[in-house]
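DM from R.C. (forwarded with permission)

"hey, sorry to bug you on a friday — could you get me a structure for this? deadline for the figure draft is monday and I only need the backbone to look sensible"
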Amino acid sequence: MQESGKGILIITSLADRADGYFDATGTRQSDGFFYKDEIAVYGEYGLNETYTVLARLAWQDVEQSFGQNYDQAEGVAASQLGLRRLLLARDRNVISVQGSVFLPGSGENIANQPLGEGERGYELRVLGGRSFGGQSFGDVQLAYRARDGRFLDEIHLDTGFGFGLTEIWRVGVSSFSVWSIESARPGVPAFEQHKLQFSLLRSGESFDVEIGLMATPAGESALDERALFLSTWRRF
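My reply, with the result:
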């Protein structure tokens, strides 16, 4: 949550690559390639002590080829607009609920679909966090994402832990998991994907800088992605 009248802006540059994928049984297959270069802007702003608005916009250059299928796109990916409500803030614990709408773009909208494919998505997310003092914290988020059209609804489970090394240095470990929860349809396979992320953040007087790595240890009908990212955080 953001304090009333205050916010945060995060700009991230990402290079994402894959030279294989997980098939429907979860077995890794070495085939084809996936290249994605992305610049994303994410922001939050506290309307008051209870409500925070948030938005995310990303520009992508994506190219992929698997089997006989080749796909390329350059443009805006799925964009997010949301509202978060604080439910509880007690001692070092915070619980909130968040609703978001996802608007499709010409880039990557759904992880295992052709570029540009996808319709609107609607998400309800519950967030729980605890501060352990200094820069150390833990965070768990559970979400249900409903999708328009023929695309499958999803469950998301995200976790994050930060460990303060000094007053200005922090290491982070995060996981991002998604499962489709409906039966497969023609051209829309059931899928799941699990990502791990490791990062190092340095806090500065005017802004923070974070660098990190992401890997995909498991999945079904999903890419085996590996990525490097660089983010700048600025509070206002």
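R.C.: lifesaver. The longest strand covers residues 28-46.
me: no worries. The chain has a mean pLDDT of 94.
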